Amino acid sequence: MATIITKEQQEKEKMVTLVSSDSEKFVVEQKVAEKSHVIKMVMNCCGIESPIPVRRVKGDILKSILEYCEKHSKGEAQEVMEKWDKEYMDKAEKDLVFFHDLMLASHFLHIQELVDLIAVTFAGMLKMKSPEEIRQKFNINNDLTKEQEEHIMTTFGWAFQPI
Amino acid sequence: MKIRIRSEETKETMRFEIPDPCSFSDLKTLIASKLSSSSNGLAPQSIRLTLNRKDELSPDSPSATLRSLGITSGDLIFFSFDPSLVLDPMGIDSNEKVVPVAPISGSVEELLGSEKKLEEGTSSQGETLDVDVEDGSELSEEDVETFVIEKSSSVPCFLKRVFDLEKGVAKGNLGLVVIAVHAVFLESGFVALDGSGLKLPGGWATAVGTISVSYTLPELIGSDAEKDAKVAVLKFSLMGTYVSIYGFLNVGGSGVHRACLDVSKLLPLLCLPMDSIGEMEEEVVFKFWKGVKDGVSLPLLIDICDKNGLPPPPCLACLPTDLKIRILELLPGVDLARVGCVNSEMRYLTSNDELWRKKFLEELGPVNENGGVVARWRDKYAMHWLRMKEIKRGRLFLRPHSSFRRYIRFRPFTGGRPYLNDVDDFGLGPRSGFLPRRRRNISLHCDFDQHDAGFRY
């Protein structure tokens, strides 16, 4: 019994400090931080005693990512997780800039599960939209020349037929 | 223009199709890179080119065109190595020898004359000449087959446009790489500082050693803040066949983004006419494009917007290429096609046939490949998709479909293999060479030749 308690205590002690690009500090359990492959490698080689700077990620993004990692390190039932993921994504996709930064950061930190989740949500945003709607939503310039556009219509024109 | 290049030592002949105009140094680079694949790295400067195996071709400047030296299509050029110059890791024309111009002012007649002189010479040279003549006849036969121009997809388009503008300015391998990177940067939305439009600022090619180019954004030009605007600086250096590109902002605190790319496969392509690039070569260009874009240009774009207080660049455009591809893989085919119409980058990414093969197998099930006519998966997908729709509408058996066959019947095959890589021209129209077979598989009661009602998509 006594050994178990010490183990738990040891686990508790294994906290790591992450510092975002705008110098915000986050103290999380090691197993939460380990969700990121990159941070895990840093911890393996440099230890967890000193704070780990995450230079390319801003505080609000890092906070959101750690929230995800924490939830996913608990090992809850799949249905619970799916529901939580959906809510998490619903919240994130409201702000496109935030959503985009979240994807870049999770890619940078190598959190494959989160990258996959965001990619699926992103694909969902592109579905059932015309090219013009996509351009507007994501603020993309149409840099195609007239000839290229005509060309595209010969290759992809079929996708615009009414179903 | 097609030329033959023969080694003086091994007598081995290579055939090149080179752009017209092609500069003298381009040709040397091309030869060096062709040979480098078999042996170790060769410096283009170490190559000696002659027309008659005696007098070295040495134009006033390495950027002189071959045409100005009197070299025309079908010519035979000999090459050998100058051992004192074989190792030159920088690949820059810094130690270009200044040699007086060889007395070849010529034309085809003169060249023929020099070959005739050879014939009159010793017997061993005469033998070589016989081979030459055979080669000449071979070449004319091959004209039809080997040199059929295959239309490539949109990949090298951005490169081509920029190269057309900068042609002749490039100096050495590094110069070529700088132009290729310049093309990627333009494509990402940067403009060269002090440059005009698409062009690089003048004088960049004269720099020896490390080349540095500065970029800014169109939004920052002409604004009040132009003087204080932070610009992105790129530095290039070449070591052997690896080029390192460092990108950073001219302000402290921003990180340095670096890409190190192996350009040994890219360089020969940059010397070739962009129109003749095939699928394998496209892969090489794509890898380079991706490396530069994800490694340097996109991170710099995000940095430069951030530091200058501009709104962040468009969300979808700034994702690394891997992520974009990941997202595209998750889309159903019909949405993929629509996304492909958004801009040139998406058009390019959705032209990947492997992606369409996956879509086809995912959505339309395994298909029995009969071999024979090779078609693009994208077009196969389109066809099957439309057919499925027709079936759903219940129209399939009301409309016989022989119009495709009619097209095929009247379209002459021009030899070569024009259908294999014929990417962009391929619509749903007349060139769908594989259609009749596929049609026959599903239309059970249809006699193609009797029903002639026009069925078109």
From TrEMBL, chain A:
The cross-references to InterPro entries, in alphabetical order and at most eight, read: SKP1 (IPR016897), SKP1-like (IPR001232), SKP1-like_dim_sf (IPR036296), SKP1/BTB/POZ_sf (IPR011333), Skp1_comp_dimer (IPR016072), Skp1_comp_POZ (IPR016073)
Membrane-spanning parts = none
User: Where do the SKP1 component POZ domain residues begin and end?
Assistant: 14-73
One biological process term in Gene Ontology: protein ubiquitination
What the entry lists under Pfam families is as follows: Skp1, Skp1_POZ
Coiled-coil stretches: none
Q: Does the keyword Cell inner membrane apply?
A: no
Give residue ranges for domain SKP1 component dimerisation. 112-159
Q: Which domain of life is it from?
A: Eukaryota
Q: Please verify whether the record's keywords include Cell division.
A: no
Q: In which pathway does it act?
A: Protein modification; protein ubiquitination
- Record keywords, A-Z: Ubl conjugation pathway
The free-text function statement in the UniProt record for this protein reads:
Involved in ubiquitination and subsequent proteasomal degradation of target proteins. Together with CUL1, RBX1 and a F-box protein, it forms a SCF E3 ubiquitin ligase complex. The functional specificity of this complex depends on the type of F-box protein. In the SCF complex, it serves as an adapter that links the F-box protein to CUL1.
Q: Which family does it belong to?
A: Belongs to the SKP1 family.
- Share what the entry says about its subunit structure, partners included: Part of a SCF (SKP1-cullin-F-box) protein ligase complex.
Name the UniProt record assigns to this protein = SKP1-like protein
Organism of derivation: Dioscorea cayennensis subsp. rotundata
TrEMBL record, chain B:
User: Region annotation Disordered: residue ranges?
Assistant: 116-136
Q: Superkingdom of this entry's organism? A: Eukaryota
Against InterPro entries, the record matches this protein to: F-box-like_dom_sf, F-box_dom, Ubiquitin-like_dom, Ubiquitin-like_domsf
Domain named Ubiquitin-like: which ranges? 1-77
The segment(s) forming the F-box domain are: 313-359
Write the protein's name. Answer: F-box protein SKIP22-like
The record lists the organism as Dioscorea cayennensis subsp. rotundata (White Guinea yam)
Its taxonomic placement starts with: Eukaryota, Viridiplantae, Streptophyta, Embryophyta, Tracheophyta
